[in-house]
């Protein structure tokens, strides 16, 4: 099942599928799950040095038999490798683990305030200029951090990968990213399962004949310049998460789901590396 070409997103010369397969915390059969995702139609795979799944992603890519040029692979450099030399060594380590010559998108995984952004973002740009990645971006950057990153990075930034779902408003960040022609790629797009029990989501899912996760993902990608990288541990869920391109939520349904942002639930907030998050005013 190949996603229609219409459901890709573009930013600064980069084209990325709106839905990718997330590989954080794959506890069993990781390479098989990656291969299964590719074989059912995913063309974007999201990993990171911190996840410990790069080797399995590479194995899954090779097992799928799909040509490298057909795939969009994202990886990330941990905040522990924010210094230029460490950063570039991390990228090379990732490529060896993946057994790839390059990745399509390289992200700074978490901001590192102890290292000047000019050094970290300079290393990110150098990785692109050396052909180790085709595009670059950031992850978990606040509004102020994004402004600084845009100011000091010598190459165009394409995405900010963030936690985003119906329980967590990101209106200010979305406006900022759109202003700069960037994308928001959502991780934890169903709030690690919490949204699957929401009665509003359940009511819309029942009326549409869709799963709760499909409604949550459709709500995300139906917004301008938003993609998502859901994780799934069973092949039927992997396939379901991609099967969201054959229906459209109505304006009323979108508004009902958007109103859930009043809950203000953040799932991923590791105290050892999370920044002071922006506060969104919810009407």
Highlighted features:
alpha/beta, 8-stranded parallel sheet, two-stranded antiparallel ribbon, 37% helix
List the helices and strands and how they pair.
Blueprint lengths: L7 E4 L2 E4 L3 E2 L7 H10 L4 E3 L7 H11 L7 E6 L6 H15 L4 E6 L8 H13 L3 E7 L3 H10 L4 E7 L7 H9 L3 E5 L11 H10 L3 H10 L4 E3 L6 H8 L8 H8 L25
Parallel strand pairs: 3-4, 4-5, 5-6, 6-7, 7-8, 8-9, 9-10
Antiparallel strand pairs: 1-2
Helix pairs in contact: 1-2, 2-3, 3-4, 7-8
Description of the structure:
The structure is a single chain. The protein is an alpha/beta fold and 283 residues long. The protein has one domain (5-192, 223-248): Alpha-Beta Barrel (TIM Barrel), CATH 3.20.20.100. The chain has helices spanning 30-39, 54-64, 84-98, 117-129, 143-152, 171-179, 199-208, 212-221, 235-242, 251-258, and strands spanning 8-11, 14-17, 21-22, 44-46, 72-77, 103-108, 133-139, 157-163, 183-187, 226-228. The chain starts with 7 loop residues before the first strand and ends in a 25-residue tail after the last helix.
Task: Identify the strand order in the major beta sheet.
Answer: 3-4-5-6-7-8-9-10
What is the CA–CA distance across the termini? 39 Å
Given as residue ranges, the uncertain stretches (5+ residues, pLDDT < 50) are none
Please tell me how large the radius of gyration is: 18 Å
CATH 2nd-level architecture? Alpha-Beta Barrel
Q: How does the overall form come out from the CA principal axes?
A: globular
Give the mean pLDDT: 95
Question: What pattern of helices and strands is seen along the backbone?
Answer: EEEHEHEHEHEHEHEHHEHH
Structural class of the secondary elements? alpha/beta
Q: Count of DSSP E strands?
A: 10
CATH superfamily descriptor:
NADP-dependent oxidoreductase domain
Level-1 CATH class name: Alpha Beta
Range of helix content: 25-40%
Provide a count of the helices. Answer: 10
Give the CATH topology. Answer: TIM Barrel
Strand content: 15-25%
Number of domains: 1
How would you characterize the largest beta sheet?
8 strands, parallel
